[in-house]
Design goal:
Helix 3 runs antiparallel to helix 4 and helix 5 runs antiparallel to helix 6. Strands 8, 9, 10, 11, 13 and 16 form a 6-stranded antiparallel beta sheet that branches. The two termini are 37 Å apart. The chain has 8 helices and 22 strands. It folds into 4 domains: 105 residues, Immunoglobulin-like, CATH 2.60.40; 138 residues, Immunoglobulin-like (Sandwich), CATH 2.60.40; 89 residues; 92 residues, no CATH class. With 454 residues, the protein is α+β, with helices and mostly antiparallel strands.
Length: 454
C-alpha cells in the first residue's frame, strides 16, 4: 500500500538450480519462467497478467549457484481478493506450480493501519531508485518464512498510515514490535523493541531483531501502534518458522510458582499427571516439550504440578482450569478416534493436528480406493493467518489405525511433492518407483480430493 492508493505487492524467488538453462545467441545460458498472476473478487477476475521472467545469464547450464527474484506491484481498490499464481519452467515439460491465497487491501480512512510486514534478506541505502526501493532503502526480500539455524537476524519493514489524520499535527505515538509464540500467544519480551514516532503521512518502521537464541518453533512477529494512554491504534502480524537445533530456553522462575489452592491439587497420582503433561505436546512450544520431557523423567511431582499450572496460566491467565478441561475433552475425543495399539491419540499425526489446529472444515476419507493406500485429506478454510491449508495422511500398513502425515501446505508442516506417489505406491509390483516421472492418472480422484475436498 502506498499513500492514498493501495497496491498488492508480490515477491517471487526462483531457485536457479530448479529450472532448465538454455543457450542464448551470445553463447551464454539463461533460464526462463512463465508467470501468470491473477486477482479475483467474488469469483470475478479483476486482474490478470502473464509475463516471462528471465534469469541472469550464466557461463554454463550446470553450475548455477544463484536465485533470481521477481517483484510486482498491482494497483487495486481496497477490498478482499483471492490472489492466484502459476509458475512454469518455459524450457521444460514439467507441469506448472499453482497456488492461491486470500489477501485484504485496506485504506486508512479515519483510523491508523499498517501495511503488510515485509521480511528482509538484506538492505542498503538507495542510490538510484528501483523496483526494490522503499523508504530510502533497497530491500532484498526474505522470500521464505523459514529461518534456518545460520540466520540469526530477522529484519522487517512496514509502513503505518493514517497517524496524521488520527492524531493531528505533532501527535506522538509508540510503535512496538515483538515476537510471540503462534500456538500459545505467549509474548517473548527478550525479542522486542519500540520506536517513538510523530504523526506523518507515512511512518516507516524498519527494524532488526537478533534471533540467535530463539529456539525451534512457530512464531509470530507483531507490530503495534499505541497512544500515550497505551490504547491500541493499529496492529499487524507476520508468521514465521525458526529452526535452531540445540537452543533450548528455560522456563524462568517456575520453582517459585505456588500450586496450593489451585486445580493442580486435584491430581494426587504422579503417573496420571505425567500422562496429562504428555498430552500437552500438540499445544507446546519446542522449549515446553523439552522441559516437559525432562520434568516427567525426573518424577519431581511438585515441579510437574508447577509446570502444568504455568502451562495453562500462560494460555488462560483468568481461567486456567477451564482451559485445561476444554482441552482435556478434545484429548478424550482424539483418543477414541485416532489411538492405535501402540500410540496414544494425541501422539499420532492426526491427533496432533486435530489438537493443535482444531477439527478440519472438510475431511475426505478414502479407505477402498483402487490401487491406493487408505488416506485422508483434511482441509482448513482458515488456519491462523493462512487460508485454504490441507493435510494429507496415509496408512501404508493397512492394519493399524495410525495414519502418517506425508504432506501439508501449512506453514511449518512437512511438505512432500511426491505424496501422490506414496499413496499410489500400493499399485506397484515392487518397492521401486520412479519418483521423477509425471503420471497423469494421479489427476483423477486423488488430485480432485486434494484440490476440491468433499
Amino acid at each position: 500500500m502506498g499513500g492514498r492508493n493501495p497496491y498488492l505487492e508480490t515477491y517471487l524467488m526462483v531457485n536457479g538450480e530448479s529450472v532448465r538453462f538454455v543457450k542464448t545467441p551470445d553463447g551464454k545460458f539463461r533460464g526462463e519462467v512463465e508467470v501468470i498472476l491473477t486477482a479475483s473478487q467474488d469469483e470475478n477476475l479483476v486482474f490478470a497478467d502473464k509475463y516471462l521472467l528471465l534469469s541472469p545469464e550464466s557461463a554454463d547450464s550446470v553450475h548455477v549457484g544463484f536465485n533470481f527474484i521477481d517483484q510486482q506491484r498491482i494497483p487495486l481498490p481496497a477490498g478482499n481478493y483471492k490472489l492466484g499464481i502459476e509458475v512454469k519452467d518455459a524450457n521444460s515439460v514439467a507441469e506448472a506450480v499453482k497456488a492461491t491465497m486470500d489477501v485484504s487491501l485496506r485504506m486508512p480512512g479515519d483510523s491508523m493501519i499498517y501495511s503488510g510486514i515485509q521480511l528482509v534478506e538484506s538492505y542498503k541505502k538507495t542510490e538510484k531508485p528501483g523496483p526494490l526501493s522503499k523508504g530510502g532503502y533497497d530491500l532484498v526480500p526474505h522470500i521464505s518464512e523459514f529461518y534456518g539455524k545460520h540466520e540469526n537476524h530477522l529484519v522487517f519493514y512496514t509502513e503505518c498510515y493514517g497517524s496524521f489524520q488520527s492524531l493531528g499535527e505533532g501527535g506522538r505515538f509508540l510503535q512496538k514490535f515483538y515476537i510471540e509464540e503462534q500456538t500459545s500467544g505467549k509474548v517473548l519480551p527478550q525479542f522486542s523493541g519500540f520506536e517513538r514516532s510523530t504523526a506523518a503521512a507515512v511512518n516507516v518502521l524498519m527494524k532488526e531483531l537478533n534471533i540467535e537464541e530463539l529456539p525451534n518453533g512457530n512464531y509470530r512477529l507483531v507490530v503495534e501502534a499505541r497512544d500515550k494512554e497505551n490504547n491500541l491504534l493499529a496492529r499487524n502480524t507476520q508468521d514465521f518458522v525458526r529452526s535452531n537445533p540445540g537452543m533450548i530456553a528455560n522456563l524462568d522462575n517456575l520453582d517459585l510458582l505456588v500450586t496450593e489452592g489451585t486445580f493442580t491439587q486435584l491430581y494426587t497420582n504422579p503417573d496420571s499427571l505425567a500422562e496429562h503433561i504428555r498430552s500437552l505436546s500438540p499445544l507446546s512450544s519446542s522449549m515446553e516439550r523439552t522441559f516437559a520431557e525432562n520434568v516427567v523423567k525426573e518424577k519431581n511431582f511438585n515441579l510437574m504440578k508447577q509446570f502444568f499450572l504455568s502451562f495453562w496460566l500462560n494460555r488462560s491467565p483468568s481461567a486456567p482450569r477451564e482451559a485445561w478441561e476444554r482441552y482435556r475433552t478434545e484429548v478424550i475425543k482424539v483418543q477414541k478416534e485416532f489411538a492405535s495399539s501402540i500410540r496414544r491419540g494425541y501422539s499420532t499425526d492426526r491427533g496432533r493436528v486435530y489438537l493443535q489446529y482444531g477439527p478440519p472444515d472438510n475431511r475426505t476419507v478414502s479407505t477402498y480406493e483402487p490401487a491406493a493406500y487408505p488416506y485422508e485429506i483434511w482441509h482448513y478454510y482458515k488456519l491462523g493467518n493462512q487460508s485454504n491449508r490441507r493435510f494429507v495422511f496415509y496408512n501404508p500398513d493397512l492394519v493399524s489405525n495410525d495414519y502418517t502425515l506425508i504432506h501439508s501446505d501449512a506453514l511449518g508442516e512437512i511438505m512432500n511433492d511426491q505424496w501422490q506417489f506414496l499413496i499410489m505406491k500400493r499399485d506397484t509390483q515392487t518397492n521401486d518407483i520412479d519418483l521423477e516421472r509425471t503420471d497423469p492418472h494421479f489427476g483423477s480422484q486423488l488430485q480432485q480430493n486434494f484440490q476440491t475436498p468433499r
